[in-house]
Write a structure and sequence with these properties.
The longest helix has about 40 residues. α4 crosses α6, α7 runs antiparallel to α8 and α12 runs antiparallel to α13. The strands form 5 sheets. Strands 4-5-6-7-8 form a 5-stranded antiparallel beta sheet, with helices on one face. A 3-stranded antiparallel beta sheet has the order 3-2-9. It has a two-stranded antiparallel sheet with strand order 1-14. It folds into 2 domains: about 350 residues, no CATH class; about 80 residues, no CATH class. It is of the alpha+beta class. The chain contains 15 helices and 14 strands. The C terminus is likely disordered.
């Protein structure tokens, strides 16, 4: 029992640190990050509305630019390709896979739980797990060998979402420790852990890291790591612009030599107070007068906002360069750009997406191998497996068709051209069947046409030397 307690404690400690880090990233992605303003508490209260209006969530765009291009459309598992795709579809992973991948891009890691499930038509269930609730321990010095998976959750999670991580209501927490040979569960109403055998024989909680590190002492990088400092600076600039807009964007009128009227006001408690009466009501259709010959009028120049606007544009441009995000994604400036110019602008993003897909794809391959093994499919041992992604590049249909047509003239097989088109393995299989059926139908039509031609030819030769009636009576159709 001591070993189980030690593993439970180690996993809980790691999850606490992991969840605190993940919450910080999620705050930036969800537009809930704090804005730094150099003011005391009273001024913060005064400018609270400005703080709320100063959010401009560029971090979400940075992540979504990558996430929207990472779409799994199939697998290649040899003879088990159809079985793998059936498991994928049965677990609604067309949609749920995006949840896992987006969390991994935002937080640096996310998790997938695979387990046998008789209620699922495929015989196995694959579920996304949050980095706020799940973690994996690895063998020291080996970042691929999992020794434990851990999940901690509660249906009464408190709203303490700060840097300290989740805070749970006492007596509501369920903990699950997945070991290679057993699964241990602690529930709020149990006196001790419930221990069950692990039929898989391996830790069935897998971790997805789009940007892993060789050192296990360093946390995997988030897509937001290079963007956070820019996001904070942009927020501060926008906040300062809001303050300048309120206090300095309009000309302030001043006057000297003006005698100000005063009036006495009496409060409900009987106390009196002398207050100044507003001397002028400034307007476009109003005249300012002053009977004092020494009196003067003037105005303070308004503050221009050009500097603030240019500072934001400059920071966004730098943000685009640092994160390899096309500038027109962030600035919305896209005028008279040719297809080649757009492709060049997106080259960095495409390369980045391909790198992320390499590591994310390895996780999905491990997930599907584990799932196939749980249902007894021999494809679990297939080492040549690979994920089929939708094309990362943005290309017009005319460009793609033209390129494929030229490839076909070089003798490239149709199946390869279909893959380049973006067809899934299932679509290719369907197209092969349709092509075979069409070829068979064409052959039958050609045979029928040749048969009719032979008959017509025979009838014509016979008609040249004898009456048609005699010819027809001697023919066998």
């Amino acid at each position: 029992m001591s070993y189980l307690d030690d593993m439970r404690t180690a996993c809980a400690y790691q999850l606490d640190a992991q969840a605190a880090r993940a919450l910080g990233y999620m705050g930036y992605y969800d537009g809930q990050s704090q804005i730094t303003a150099l003011m005391d508490s009273a001024e913060r209260e005064t400018f609270l509305r400005f703080l709320q209006e100063s959010y401009a969530n560029w971090c979400e765009l940075i992540v979504n630019a990558v996430a929207e291009r990472l779409q799994v459309v199939g697998f290649r598992f040899g003879d088990s390709t159809d079985a793998a795709w059936a498991i994928w579809q049965a677990n609604q992973l067309d949609a749920d896979s995006e949840l896992v991948q987006t969390d991994a891009l935002v937080c640096g890691r996310s998790f997938v739980l695979v387990q046998a499930d008789d209620d699922n038509p495929s015989g196995v269930s694959i579920t996304p797990e949050s980095p706020l609730e799940a973690t994996v321990l690895y063998e020291p010095g080996n970042r691929r060998k999992r020794i434990a998976g851990y999940k901690r959750f509660s249906d009464m999670t408190l709203a303490a979402m700060g840097t300290g991580g989740y805070a749970y209501a006492p007596g509501t927490v369920t903990e699950v420790l997945v070991l290679p040979d057993e699964i241990v569960t602690w529930t709020p109403d149990s006196q001790g852990p419930v221990i069950e055998a692990n039929p898989a024989g391996v830790v069935t909680l897998l971790e997805m890291q789009p940007q892993p590190r060789t050192s296990m002492a360093r946390a995997p990088r988030s897509e937001l790591d290079p963007a956070i400092s820019f996001q904070d600076r942009i927020h501060t600039t926008i906040f300062n612009r809001m303050v300048a807009t309120d206090y300095g964007a309009f000309r302030q009128i001043w006057a000297t030599g003006v005698k100000l009227a005063r009036q006495i006001t009496t409060a409900a408690d009987g106390t009196s107070q002398e207050v100044l009466v507003q001397p002028y009501n400034v307007g476009a259709n109003r005249l300012l007068t002053n009977e004092n010959p020494d009196g003067k009028f003037g105005s303070f120049p308004e503050s221009t906002l050009v500097g603030y606007l240019e500072a934001v544009d400059r920071d966004v441009s730098h943000l685009a360069a640092i994160t390899q995000t096309p500038p027109h994604y962030l600035l919305g400036k896209m005028a008279n750009l040719s297809a080649d110019a757009i492709k060049a602008a997106e080259a960095g993003l495409v390369s980045k997406v391909a790198r992320r897909a390499t590591h994310i794809g390895e996780t999905w391959e491990s997930v599907m191998r584990l799932a196939l093994g749980l249902v007894g499919d021999p494809g679990a041992a297939y080492i040549g497996a690979e994920v089929v992604w939708r094309d990362f590049e943005t290309r017009s249909e005319a460009q793609l068709v033209d390129a494929l047509t030229k490839m076909a003239t070089l003798g490239v097989p149709r199946e390869v051209l279909w893959q380049r088109w973006g067809a899934t393995p299932q679509e290719i299989q369907t197209w092969q069947g349709l092509s075979a059926a069409q070829a068979a139908q064409d052959a039958a039509n050609q045979a029928a046409a040749l048969g009719a031609a032979d008959i017509a030819k025979a009838l014509g030769q016979a008609g040249a030397g004898s009456p048609p009636e005699a010819d027809l009576s001697g023919q066998s159709l």
